[in-house]
Amino acid sequence: MTDDDDSRLSLDTLYDAVEAAGSPVVTATTVARHTTLSQAAAAEGLEALVDAGDAERVTPGGDRPAYYPTSWGELAERERLVVFPDRREVVADRPTQYTRASLAQFAHLVDSTRTEPGTRGYLYEIRPEDIWATPFADLDTLLDRVRSVLPRRVSELESWIGEQWKRANQFVLDTHEDGYVVLRADREELMGNVARQKLADDHLRAPISETESWVNEDAVGAVKRTLYEAGYPVRDDRDLDTGEPLSVSMETELRDYQREWVDRFLERQAGVLTAPPGSGKTIAALGVLSEVGGETLILVPSRELAGQWHDELLAHTDLDDDQIGEYHGGR
Questions:
Q1: Which residue, 28, 56, 30, 55, is CA-closest to 42?
Q2: Exposure of 261 by Cβ count < 10 A (0-12 exposed, 13-18 middle, 19+ buried)?
Q3: Domain ranges across the chain
Q4: Which fold has domain 3-73?
Q5: Tell me: the pLDDT tens digits for 31-86?
Q6: 181-214: per-residue pLDDT in tens?
Q7: d(CA 56, CA 67)
Q8: How high is the mean pLDDT of the chain?
Q9: Which end of the chain has fewer CB atoms surrounding its CB within 10 Å, N or C?
Q10: pLDDT reported for residue 76
Q11: Higher pLDDT, 215 or 152
């Protein structure tokens, strides 16, 4: 590849930038942010793709131009989503990658069925746990994303989403200053009518107040599981033991959006990275690992994935092979 090739915007690079931005359209500024191109080179490259018929230009509200791959526009014309509010299901016929990535942030993919050559239908279900684990910082942002994807506003579905959002984090586990574990509820009725009714006698040692209970430390897992199954996920803010200190430095520079993911993860001390394939979720996870500064446990369901993580750690951090351990089960 020549230097001239490096300074030109290819269609593949445009796809990468669109996916990384998580938006169906991008500006030259956005492309420059997610590539090695300058803003001027990105603008020139986008116009060249338009001239070649590989990209489309739009100017929303007379503002600066935005662009998207022509093939995405063709797909969007064929895309069709049908919402079944009573079942909280969404059927997507020929969805674009942006639509699928957006749905994945608040819904669960139940099935995908090839209906005819070149097409695929997707069935999504919106479950309580999908709303509890959504990556958005507040309800308004979540609802904005829902409205941007679904073909129409569905008030009953939005109301249900709001109810599930409120259910999350109404119970909190934390560590008392004297060292024991405390379960706290937002309201008296939650502690009295939910926690103390649902939990077994050996789960709670004693009430502390109308909204607080002393938890049997050996039953913490059972407390969280029982309340989760009752529809109340518990936020765990306990002071937990940490691993030994381990200095880890990234040898791959994070992109701006990956840096934002890492910062938000660290701020909330937990999170789920949800983004299109190829957008760098693994690299962002390694960024979190490097910021933690201690031993980190990575759980994967197969030996193959364990090996892939091993390789990624060696490729993108300053860890040596003897600093990475692997433990395998039967797969």
A1: 28
A2: buried
A3: 3-73, 79-165, 171-232, 256-323
A4: Arc Repressor Mutant, subunit A (1.10.10)
A5: 988 888 989 999 999 999 999 988 888 775 456 788 888 766 555 556 788 889 98
A6: 999 999 999 999 999 999 999 999 999 999 999 9
A7: 6
A8: 85
A9: N
A10: 53
A11: 215
Q: How many C-beta atoms lie closer than 10 Å to residue 73's C-beta?
A: 15
Give the pLDDT of residue 120: 61
pLDDT in tens, 223-265: 999 999 999 999 888 988 777 899 999 999 998 888 888 988 8
Cβ atoms of 61 and 68 closer than 8 Å:
no
Protein fold of 171-232: Alpha-Beta Plaits (3.30.70)
Beta 181-185 vs 121-125: how paired, if at all?
unpaired
Exposure on the CB side of residue 167, measured as CA atoms within 13 A: 22
Provide DSSP, 102-142. HHTTT-EEEEEE--STT--EEEEE--HHHHHT---SSHHHH
Residues in the chain: 331
CA 297-303-308 angle, to 5 degrees, is: 70
Q: pTM score, two decimals? A: 0.55
Whether 66 and 59 have beta carbons less than 8 Å apart is answered as: yes
Tell me how far apart the alpha carbons of residues 188 and 207 are, in angstroms, rounded to a whole number. 12
- In this chain, the answer to whether the domains covering 3-73 and 171-232 adopt an identical fold is no
What span, in angstroms and rounded, lies between the C-alpha atoms of 215 and 172?
A: 12
String of b and e for 226-239 (b: at least 16 CB within 10 Å)? bbeeeebbbbeeee
